[in-house]
Amino acid sequence: MTKAEIKAVLTGALQDGVALYWQFPPSGTGRCLVWGETGPAGGPAADNQSGERGMKGMVELYTTLEEDPLFAAVEEAMRGARLAFSWESSGYDRDAGLVKHRWRWVSL
Questions:
Q1: Model-level pTM?
Q2: Strand order of the sheet with strand 18-20?
């Protein structure tokens, strides 16, 4: 998947905005979804040539709710896009004053 396709998947999960790389102030819903790629993800190389090349990255959901229904919507969007992902953590982000959920994903 391309960056634009991944952003479109996440934008479909959160109608009011998705930020690339940085957090912006939460919308009127008190939610913010941040994503970014953390590097290439590819198969093993052969004859000094890389095979398929994909991306890997993270998604962070900032919300005022401890159990936000958007948590499931983000996972469903990534499943629907056939991104391999894992939930990494949830906790209170003191700097943002919001609950933060983080996932790691891989696109091949």
A1: 0.75
A2: 18-20, 32-42, 53-63, 98-107, 84-93
Spatial distance between the Cα atoms of 91 and 22, rounded to a whole number of angstroms = 18
Residue 8 and residue 12: Cα distance in Å, rounded? 6
Largest CA distance in the chain: 53
Question: Rounded to 5 degrees, what are φ and ψ at 18?
Answer: -135, 130
The pair of structure tokens assigned to 85 is 């992902």
Residues 98 and 62 sit within 8 Å (Cβ to Cβ): yes
For residue 26, the model assigns a pLDDT of 59
Q: What token pair was written down for 99?
A: 């609950």
Beta strands in 1-108 (DSSP E): 18-20, 32-42, 53-63, 84-93, 98-107
pLDDT score recorded for residue 99:
92
